[in-house]
Design goal:
The protein is of the alpha/beta class. It has three helices and six strands, in the order ββαβαβαββ.
Length: about 150
């Protein structure tokens, strides 16, 4: 890949809970964090305003993040208690989101995919998401970094 301009934007304040049911330690219990996500964007050319990405144009991504992570309960699709979580959702006790993997690494990859889907459809591939940091607190973060297929 040739030289590119980059910038980053952080989206935060998404309190949610999850559990890693396979974990032998305390992570198997329901616990929560206020998640945040930092996206690094790139472009070989700036837009007409001189931006890699106009941050004010990322409302759809922020709404998608809020829908998935704001006051929700995340559970793996193979959680043995899935039926009970679904019952609690139907009763209004929790706002369930079923994911392939609720971990921070997989969440970073999911957000990377969402960001690139938005940018590619909107900007025709001019801009792209390079990397996403998914942070569960001040001490712990996970990253997903890849070059989108349309970037050579």
């Amino acid at each position: 890949m040739t030289a590119a301009f980059t910038c980053s934007k952080t989206f935060g304040g998404f309190p949610c809970c999850h559990r890693q049911w396979r974990h032998p330690g305390h992570c198997r219990f329901v616990h929560g964090y206020s998640r945040s996500f930092t996206c690094w964007f790139g472009a070989r050319e700036l837009d007409q305003c001189g931006f890699v990405v106009d941050f004010s144009s990322l409302g759809a991504l922020e709404a998608q993040l809020a829908e998935q992570f704001d006051h929700t309960f995340l559970v793996n699709a193979d959680d043995p208690l899935l039926e009970q979580w679904q019952d609690l959702h139907q009763q209004g006790a929790l706002d369930l989101r079923v994911m392939q993997n609720v971990g921070m690494e997989a969440s970073a990859q999911l957000v990377w995919t969402w960001a690139n889907d938005l940018l590619r459809s909107r900007d025709g591939g001019r801009s792209y998401c390079l990397k996403v940091e998914a942070r569960e607190n001040e001490k712990n973060a996970a990253y997903y970094e890849a070059t989108p297929s349309w970037i050579d």
